[in-house]
């Protein structure tokens, strides 16, 4: 790939001094993350699952006129599957 207008120099941390025309090497500072990437992903996954469970419980209790915690039982899901599939 061909670099345009000194893009390659800027990527390496080098810039031309406007007065002398020489290249100066700048020290890059290392960015320290307060929360690591893997922990961010776990937090997002946890929040997603919590919102899905909360939505299921609210939907089942308000729309379905049932007890909200009942949606977390396996028997309820089996009943819903049989109802949707037309089984007995």
Model description:
This protein is mostly helical and 88 residues long. It has one domain (7-85). Helices cover 49% and strands 7% of the residues. It contains 3 helices and 2 strands; from the N terminus they run H-E-E-H-H. A two-stranded antiparallel ribbon has the order 1-2. Strand 1 (14-16) and strand 2 (23-25) form a beta hairpin. The radius of gyration is 29 Å and the shape is rod-shaped. The termini are far apart. The mean pLDDT is 81. Keywords: DNA-directed RNA polymerase, Membrane, Transcription, Transmembrane, Transmembrane helix. It comes from Salicibibacter halophilus. Residues 1-27 are annotated as: Disordered. This is DNA-directed RNA polymerase subunit beta. Residues 16-27 have a biased composition (Basic residues).
Q: What is the straight-line distance between the termini?
A: 65 Å
Query: Shape from CA axes?
Result: rod-shaped
SS summary, helix count: 3
Number of domains: 1
Strand order of the largest sheet: 1-2
What series of H and E elements makes up the topology?
HEEHH
By secondary-structure content and strand pairing, the structural class works out as mainly alpha
Low-confidence stretches: none
Protein name: DNA-directed RNA polymerase subunit beta
Biased composition (Basic residues): 16-27
Transmembrane segments: 37-63
Pfam family, one: EpuA
């Amino acid at each position: 790939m061909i670099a345009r207008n000194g893009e390659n120099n800027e990527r390496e941390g080098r810039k031309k001094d406007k007065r002398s025309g020489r290249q100066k090497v700048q020290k890059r500072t290392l960015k320290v993350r307060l929360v690591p990437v893997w922990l961010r992903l776990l937090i997002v996954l946890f929040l997603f699952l919590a919102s899905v469970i909360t939505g299921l419980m609210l939907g089942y209790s308000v729309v379905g006129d049932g007890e909200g915690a009942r949606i977390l039982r396996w028997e309820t899901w089996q009943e819903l599957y049989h109802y949707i599939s037309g089984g007995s």
